[in-house]
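Render this sequence as a predicted structure.
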Amino acid sequence: MSMRVRTSALAALTVSALAVGTALTAPAAGAAPKAAAPKFLAASQLPPHQASSWTAGPVTDGFPEELGFCVSTEGVPAYDYRYRDFRTDLDTSAVQLTVVTGTAAQAKALAKHYDDLIRTCADRIEESSPDVEAEGRDYGRLPVEEGARVRGLHTETSWGAADIALLSVGRDGRTVTVVEWGQMGDFGNAPVAAFKKTTSTAVDKLY
């Protein structure tokens, strides 16, 4: 969740996806031409952790559960979804999703849709659970390929569990990538500058 919001908090929350515009309509007769698969971040390209190294999982087909809290596939065509999880020995994790669409216009619309979902996630969290306070922050755009945007999300439950997440959406041609970093803490614990570097690397590295 974008965040790595605590499991106890997540159980109480249901997040609805926003409606997707017509630009996201699936291409007729399927098909996006086959091309080289986008590349993923390496563990060494994540924001450095003070007490633990990162470990990268395998690249896996499908949509990661970790993103399903703020970002989902609801209302989105069945594009080519792949992801990679990253872990530390402590309570910090990350995930990168890549989505290959049929056209650059579809990718542009999808990137906006995902960014809108992240931008409105804090409000949806608070609407769905009175036990959680959430705040989102906009850390701005990055000038990489067709652009990327970085946002932050802090959640705190009524019983004191607090989590911070950084999320970004970027695009290169007809491919969109979403990166999420999360751990316990608040905005003061967020490595914004390092995550911006990670995001730029993720988008630039796709092809």
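Summary. The helical segments are 7-10, 104-119, 121-128, 192-205. Residues 1-23, 25-32 have pLDDT under 50 and may be disordered.
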